[in-house]
Amino acid sequence: MIQTRIAAVAILIVTFVCAYLVYAVLPFKLGLDLQGGTHLVYRADTSVIAGRDADEAMEGLRDVIERRINFFGVTEPLVQVNHAGDEYRLIVELAGVFDINQAIQIIGQTPFLEFRTERPQAEVDALLKDLGIEKDAPVNPDVQVPDDLFYLHSELTGRFLKEASLSFGSQQGGFGGPSVSLQFNDDGAALFREMTRDNIGKTIAIYLDGAPISIPVVQDEIAGGQAQITGKFTAEEARDLVNNLNSGALPVPISLISQQNIGPTLGARALAKGVNAGIYALIAIAVFLLVWYRLPGLVGIFSLAFYTGFALLIFKILGITLTTAGITGFILSVGMAVDANILIFERLREEIRLGKSLDTALREGFWRAWPSIRDANISTIITSAILFWFGTSIVKGFALTLGIGVIASMFSAFAITRTYLFAVRIHKEAAQKFLYGSSMK
To answer: Is residue 75 assigned to a domain?
Structure first.
């Protein structure tokens, strides 16, 4: 008995510590809809990719940009693809980033890598004639020459890149400075082997962000999916290129078409009203538990207080970014926590009505309520895991807070509520009838 009461006091102290840390020490990370940030819209150039390949490339582009943003420490980015007609757009929202130039720099530092093959000379001559350019004539700066005049786009782009590494020493073309070695995945290796086999004795141009950086001559068919970028790099430039390529080469080139700062869509006033509504809801739940279940209801209030502080502390420690979707997930988990306590209290009341002693009723009530609590919560956890695995950023935020909240509610209902009930149990028969009985006859 004394050990149980000591444990209950310890839990009460932990509850106050959690509340203090949540309220006064650790700040919450808020999403774009709660604190504002930067909104960017990019147009993706899918002219060299068609049909299903374009859809797959855009999905890869979204993943690369999201990974790149996370690499720079921007939390809870919203990156989504918008397809209208033949045009693909990438929408990027960065919470808490109000410097548009910084946001553009974060996105723009990801290079677009592409391998191009020589265009047949007959086609080059025909294109030059269409542009009104004489063959072997001096270059006229007033005439705009397309960047794909001499080289054709190919399927081999940075989306097939497996790894980039920095190397020094003797290189292709006789240049002895730093170079960048590329290793393609299986699909990229097959494309590169086919490309080199069909272009022996010709050049293959390696383009980075639309500019040629290396134009080696193919001496033989290259198997194994390895390529090398050479040029007049400094060691720092080559290292930066390796880092950028490894963090994600863009599957298709993108161009910025819209940029703006946006304020919180809910606003500080709306957020405050939402918090107040949550407080009022908790007070209403506490009153209901106290009136309907009396002493167990009071225990449920303290258990719910521990659960709320503990769950919010986990969110802060893990650095989870709270959006409206995430807050919704947490509120739903609060409902699960209340439901678990109600199942326990109702089962406890039934055991008492059967004439069992209070200690036996407490033990039987918990163990018989546990299967229902376990099954309901595990099914919710499985659903949260599926949503987190397959969902987008917003859905993942909802699934994460819901899953963590449900796990915390299971612990709270079975460990915290149980400890409190055994610590405050009353053995006097008259008091038991009032404290554990129904509020209605």
So the answer is: yes
